[in-house]
Amino acid sequence: MSDTIVVALGGNALAPVGETVTVHDQFRHTRESLEVVVTLAEAGWRIAIVHGNGPQVGNALRRNECAMDQVEPLPLGVLVAGTAGWMGYMVQQSLQNALRKAGVDRQVLTVITQTLVARDDPSLHDPTKPIGMAIDESLADALRARGDHVGKDAAGRLRRLAPSPNPVDVVEAEAVKQLVDEGKIVVAAGGGGTPVYDDPGVGFEGVDAVVDKDRTAAILGARLGADTLLILTDVAAVHHDWGTEHARPIRRMTVSEAHTLLRTESLGRGSMVPKLEAAIKFVELGGRRAVIAHLAEGMPALEGETGTSIFGDSE
Fold first, then answer.
1. Active site residue 213
2. Alpha-carbon dihedral 176, 181, 186, 191, rounded to 10 degrees
3. Is 12 a catalytic residue?
4. pLDDT score at 270
5. Which of 10, 12, 270, 287 is flagged as catalytic?
6. Residue 312 catalytic?
7. Among 20, 83, 106, 301, which residue has the least CB neighbours within 10 Å?
8. Of the listed 11, 190, 191, 270, which one is catalytic?
């Protein structure tokens, strides 16, 4: 086996803005997103896959509300676990079929994992994470009237907002590492993992929040001893002067340069910022490199031709 890589797939990549979000469409987008994973599997990489669930878990919450007069609604934390299950099944089956077609004999499985967060994380009282699809003003007003939080995402669309605490650890990381080290491809920390805190009396207790999947991927990558974190998104690279006519891609950065970029330039709250912060975290925790790239350009980005690669200062 070769080095270990964690591949982070965005939930928006599987349910793109402006398209229908039927499960059939999401299966199609999932199949399209896994070409890089098949290539890595062929080359012998140890692989873990982390996926987002922003659109999906928000839609699950909306289904809750539409049926709450007929069935007992489920809390957000439980819905995160639910989406991790069915989305993991979707990624798992799509990858199994792609590997079989390519003649690659690797097992794929999904592990439902819990992400440890701090019970007193201030983010739990400040919802900022957009979930679900875009909504109109009338629905936004109705949600606000019942105490839910609504705001604009990085593209200016109205969406429901959920708390998003910082991940501290992945509870089942050792089990995932054992499976990955055996050569199995593991889908883990789906939707960033189901957030829990450790109560000294009871043990693990769920939290109604959504953890950023890129930040969790960085933590999981460090626990796996991964060489590379590959964050696949809908933007080709990190850019200087993002959002202006002078925008230009950054192909390579050190951690110090990335910190400077975060301090001195506006990258858009809720968009590139958590991805770059996750990349920095992964390298600071011992990873060799983190790569941020467009979903369709994973392999060229790993070869340094596209995307943005972040290395430690010594490199």
1. yes
2. 50
3. yes
4. 47
5. 12
6. no
7. 20
8. 11
